[in-house]
Design brief:
Largest sheet: none
Radius of gyration: 26 Å
Keywords: Membrane, Transmembrane, Transmembrane helix
Number of helices: 9
Distance between the termini: 59 Å
Shape: extended
Helix content: over 70%
Number of domains: 2
Transmembrane segments: 25-41, 56-77, 97-120, 126-150, 162-180, 206-234
Amino acid sequence: MNGSEDTGESDPLDIDLAEFIQDRSALLVVMGVFAAIAVYISDTAPELGTNTDSQLMYATGFVAAFGMAILLLCLVYKELAAEIGSWNRLHHAHYRLNNLPLAFFTLLNTMLILSISYLMARYEAVLFMLLLIAALFAGGGIVLRALYAIGRYLPQTAWARIPAMFFFSVVSGLASHYIITEYLSGVKIVTIQKMSFTDPMPVVTAVAYILVASIRSAAALCVFVAIIGTPIVLIDKIRGKSLYDNPK
């Protein structure tokens, strides 16, 4: 009999999987809903593929639904790690005899993810679409994150931050425009149906083009905001209601 049994306390590495599932039933139900949506799309679609636009849309929904199910499964394990204390403790808990249901739960989920990954890998065009969309948002995020980092070192006054935004955005826009015109203008961009992992250069080129183009667009938007913001702040200062007079 160990010390935990002598004191009547449960082992901190023991996980009651049934109780955990009952407590997190809402999360598991949502995960099941997305998995059911993926199955429904695969059953109702005339044909899953990427050769035509309609096939691509069905395949996109299929991959997105299964992707959401996998994401929610990751959240389930995040909750498990929080329940037991840390990811390291959760790892060690899998090797305890009392947690045999947890070990089988992880094993079966791993097999499920492997099979889903194989299905998703069949639709390369969908994965390329997700990659290009990520590059689109990443470009804007880079500009906004850089502006935020610069703003941390500036006084909280409009006359310091607006010029900084303007000049940084102008430089970013000109630099990205130069890259596009000098290095990417003559590059042939293929459709996502023609992209393949066996020839990654078209994929890299498309991602680079969209990333730089989104940086240029975000920089242009920031320039516009800086120009429009100047008279607005000036009017507020004249009226004596500027938000920058009493920064928090």
